[in-house]
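Re: beginner question about structure tokens

> Can someone show what the tokenized structure looks like for a real chain? I only ever see the sequence side.

Sure, here's an example I had lying around. Input first:
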Amino acid sequence: DRRGVIYLGHIPNGFYEEQMRGFFKQFGKVTRIRLARSRRTARSKGYAFIEFEYEDVAKIVADTMNNYLMFERLLKCQFIPPEKVHKTTFMGSGQFEPYGEKQQIESKKSYNQSSEKVITPKRLKRLLSAEKRRRQKLKDLGIEYSFNGYEEQV
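And the corresponding structure tokens:
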């Protein structure tokens, strides 16, 4: 009476924990579901691990659902032997709280924030040498041109 775990891949968008539990309960009791999600956006990564009460049920599900067409995607389903299931596979599986739109926008802004504002000493050195080359190139071409650059900020 060991529990069985399956890997489910190529999951279509919109097929989340709640929908999985509802769909897979037709085979038997689903004890735990772990849908892989992005830490930054909380969106699905497209694969999950599902634990069933009985190992035999999980094997049947893996055979039945492999290459099953769902929302124009072929699901990939494999049974995972108990010795290959890592102890942290289902860690935090029941703790998901969906992100709101506001949190997603804030998260994306902070992640994609430009690093132009912070000029490290190494970056400043590169900028100064590039500016020096540009000034020299203009001088070699006989162009008298003065511009405010990083040299005057230091």
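Each token stands for a local structural state, so reading them left to right follows the chain. The chain has a mean pLDDT of 87.
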